[in-house]
């Protein structure tokens, strides 16, 4: 007992010593950077030339608050104007099956390579820009000549006028952007897209401002089948799919990842419950997923028991407390786990279940389709690596349907957390304000689309 007490005392003494060292170093850096002593010296020498005026703190705070309120109101006004015009244009747009991407500049959608733009450097944007045009970015894995993309380019071109009007009314406004569920991004002012040295994997549907605008916060449990049947290529596809799924989450979401065969357990043992889907936690999940190995037999019930306990247990741990989702990645199986859903989820169906059939196999997928459809989810197939990105983000469209049906009630302006955006130089961070554009496209089997508009404020 004496030795233990002495050891604890030494540890406390050492920590206090570290704290004093840190305090002294911070004080030294502060004095060096701010020049506080020099300012005191200047004041003492010239104090007769200065007069002291008593401030009114309350009045200063009220003035600052009013200035901030006016600033945010101007940003919101620009966003409301853009969202309203986007909804109108989409409703009035006539779908064209025959629209084509012209390589010679004579078609209905002109090839952007035929427009030679001149760019001027703007210190506010810290970039070369053109104020007369918008620019479009389309993800690398999307076919630019698809009718849905060409129609999207066609009607969103009219947003240029709104972008320009917003910029004239509020010169402090920086980038304005419109992001679509199709993957099309139209932003203003136009600037050359700076692709990274490697493959350009930018997709607006994976950006924080789009994710937060396109769906409500989520509590998600990802179930990964690691039974012996998923070994080899299927297991590699599952790992890649789970990592892509994690990238669809933002800081507003909470998540846990579990592997299961005969029994289920968290892939990160210290994560006993849902954790915030921030960059650090997602990196830890990805590292753990890479270490998974396939063995044993499949038991869906063990996985679903784990997931429902994570989602439905009432604890003091922070959660999104909005959408509750289970993502099941497997190669297939015969069990429908009906007893588990009857115990936890029926008849209210408060938890959505999305199922993913991964790999090339001949298993009956009817049970997976049944599980998804009876639990307000959706069924997806991932046969190859090319299908991973598109299929792991389609669930956002399903989550957006209640917001579309709610109409104006669901249209709320949101502010993202601070992050580094692709349009902003590497030395700047931005805040983004976004608003959902809620439309229902009757052409596409009454499928409801959600599009998001946004504007940025540089820090």
UniProtKB/TrEMBL annotation:
It comes from the Eukaryota. Keywords: Calcium, Calcium channel, Calcium transport, Glycoprotein, Ion channel, Ion transport, Membrane, Signal, Transmembrane, Transmembrane helix, Transport, Voltage-gated channel. It holds the Pfam family VWA. This is Calcium channel, voltage-dependent, alpha 2/delta subunit 2b. It is a single-pass type I membrane protein. One of its GO terms (molecular function) is voltage-gated calcium channel activity. Belongs to the calcium channel subunit alpha-2/delta family. Gene3D superfamilies: von Willebrand factor, type A domain. Residues 1-19 form the signal peptide. PANTHER family: CALCIUM CHANNEL, VOLTAGE-DEPENDENT, ALPHA 2_DELTA SUBUNIT 2 ISOFORM X1, VOLTAGE-DEPENDENT CALCIUM CHANNEL SUBUNIT ALPHA-2/DELTA-RELATED. One of its GO terms (cellular component) is voltage-gated calcium channel complex. Residues 219-399 form the VWFA domain.
């Amino acid at each position: 007992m004496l030795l233990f007490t002495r050891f604890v005392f030494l540890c406390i003494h050492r920590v206090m010593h570290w704290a004093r060292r840190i305090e002294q170093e911070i004080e030294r850096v502060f004095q060096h950077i701010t020049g506080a002593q020099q300012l005191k010296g200047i004041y003492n020498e010239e104090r007769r030339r200065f007069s002291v005026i008593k401030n009114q703190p309350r009045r200063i705070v009220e003035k600052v608050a009013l200035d901030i309120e006016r600033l945010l109101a101007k940003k919101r006004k620009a966003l409301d104007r853009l969202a309203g015009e986007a909804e109108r244009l989409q409703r009035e747009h006539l779908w064209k099956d025959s629209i084509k991407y012209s390589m010679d500049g004579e078609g209905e959608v002109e090839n952007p390579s035929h427009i030679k733009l001149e760019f001027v450097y703007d210190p506010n944007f810290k970039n070369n820009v053109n104020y007369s045009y918008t620019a479009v970015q389309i993800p690398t894995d999307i076919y630019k000549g698809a009718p849905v993309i060409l129609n999207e380019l066609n009607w969103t071109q009219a947003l240029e006028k709104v972008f320009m009007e917003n910029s004239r009314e509020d010169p402090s406004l920086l980038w304005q952007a419109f992001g679509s569920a199709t993957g099309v991004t139209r932003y203003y002012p136009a600037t050359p897209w700076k692709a990274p040295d490697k493959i350009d994997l930018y997709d607006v549907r994976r950006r924080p401002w789009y994710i937060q605008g396109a769906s409500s916060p989520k509590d998600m449990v990802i179930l990964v089948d690691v039974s012996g049947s998923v070994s080899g290529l299927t297991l590699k596809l599952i790992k890649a799919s789970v990592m892509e799924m994690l990238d669809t989450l933002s800081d507003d979401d909470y998540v846990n990842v579990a592997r299961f065969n005969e029994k289920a357990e968290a892939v990160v043992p210290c994560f006993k419950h849902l954790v915030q889907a921030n960059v650090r936690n997602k990196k830890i999940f990805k590292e753990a997923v890479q270490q998974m190995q396939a063995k044993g037999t499949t038991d869906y019930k063990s996985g679903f028991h784990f997931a429902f306990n994570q989602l439905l247990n009432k604890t003091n741990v922070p959660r999104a407390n909005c959408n509750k989702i289970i993502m099941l990645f497997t190669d297939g199986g015969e069990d429908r786990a009906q007893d588990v859903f009857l115990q936890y989820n029926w008849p209210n169906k408060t938890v959505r279940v999305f199922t993913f059939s991964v790999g090339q196999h001949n298993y009956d997928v009817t049970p997976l389709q049944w599980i998804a459809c009876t639990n307000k989810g959706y069924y997806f197939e991932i046969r190859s690596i090319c299908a991973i990105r598109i299929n792991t983000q389609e669930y956002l469209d399903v989550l957006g349907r209640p917001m579309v049906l709610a109409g104006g009630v669901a249209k709320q302006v949101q502010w993202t957390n601070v992050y580094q955006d692709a349009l902003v130089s590497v030395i700047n961070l931005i805040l983004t304000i976004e608003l959902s554009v809620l439309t229902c496209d009757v052409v596409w089997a009454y499928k409801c689309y959600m599009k998001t508009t946004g504007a940025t404020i540089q820090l």
